Structure formats: structure tokens, C-alpha cells
Amino acid sequence: MVRWLEYRKKSMIKATQLTFAVLFSVVAITNAENWKPSIDWLKGASSNVIVSKAKAWENKYYRPGVSRQCANFVGEVMSSAGIQPPPGHSLARNWLKFGRPVVGSPRPGDIIVQWRGSRSGTAGHILIYVGNGQCIHRPTYSRAVSRVSLESCKPRILGIRRAR
Asked: How far apart, in whole angstroms, are the C-alpha atoms of residue 141 and residue 109?
């Protein structure tokens, strides 16, 4: 009788384990359509980090009294997010060589490069898109880091770049 009870107990445990294994498999198969590779998760994580690092500078001064620092500000944000800025990153137009080009609408964390003076000139400006039609940038050497609407930037956009 004791042996039969031990056998029954072991059978119940195995049946319970099998039930959970089958249930887990069904859930995994059901969610397979929504599964995304881990690299997509990394892309989202880096863009969230870029946006949070940029927002941390909002209403603060980045190296006051020093001109042409919008590109260095973006380089600082990227470096603090663990992303290597492009060579010559202190010039806004050099960011057109960064990451990969974006066709269409920007996503949070994307870099927007604008022209200043003329489209074919060398001067430029750079912003970080943070979502909801807003960008963060360092407007001038005498003003704090602030937000501006994407709509106001559109006429001067040379390119939009994505880190990964």
C-alpha cells in the first residue's frame, strides 16, 4: 500500500510538471507573433536613454559663453548615453555622417541636422528629437538648453540620423 501511494504521488508530480510545460508552450506559441528580436529592444533602450539624457539638460546652461556648442551638446548627450559621436562632432554638419539615415518621420532619440545661412554653406544646427513633435537643442551660447517644435525646424532640415 505504501509503495502504491509513493507511486501515485510521483505520478501526480510528473503530471503537474507536464501540464505546466504544455501550458508554457501554448503561451509561447501564442505570443510568437508578437516576439521581437533582442536587437530591437536594444534600439529602443538606446533611444530612451538618449531622450532622458537630453531632457536632463533642459533649462540648464551648457558651457555658457562658448559659441558653436550645439553639436558639442549633442555629442555630450550621446557620450553619456554610451554612444560614440562621429569624428569632428563639434560641427553640426558632420553629424550627417552619424549612424544611419532616417527616411520619413523621426523617432525619439533621432538627431536632426539643420542648415544655417544657406543650404549649401558650412554652418548648421543640430537638435535631438524627443517625441510629441518636440526637439531639445542648445539655441545659442547665451541661452539655456530648451525645447522647440519640430514644425518650426522642418524648412531647414538637411537630414535626420538614427544612432543604430
From this structure: 23
157-160 contacts: CB < 8 A, separation 24 or more? 157/112, 157/113, 157/114, 158/93, 158/96, 158/113, 158/114, 158/115, 158/119, 158/124, 159/96, 159/101, 159/102, 159/112, 159/113, 160/101, 160/102, 160/106, 160/110, 160/111, 160/112, 160/113, 160/129
Q: Phi and psi dihedrals of 162, rounded to 5? A: -120, 135
Cα 89-48-90 angle, rounded to 5 deg: 10
Model's pTM, two decimal places?
Answer: 0.70
**Total count of residues recorded for the chain:** 164
End-to-end CA distance of the chain, in Å? 66
Give the separation between CA 67 and CA 46, rounded to whole angstroms. Answer: 28
Q: CB count, 10 Å around CB of 92?
A: 25
pLDDT tens for residues 21-66? 443 443 344 444 444 433 343 344 588 999 999 999 998 988 765 6
Q: Report residue 163 as a C-alpha cell.
A: 544612432
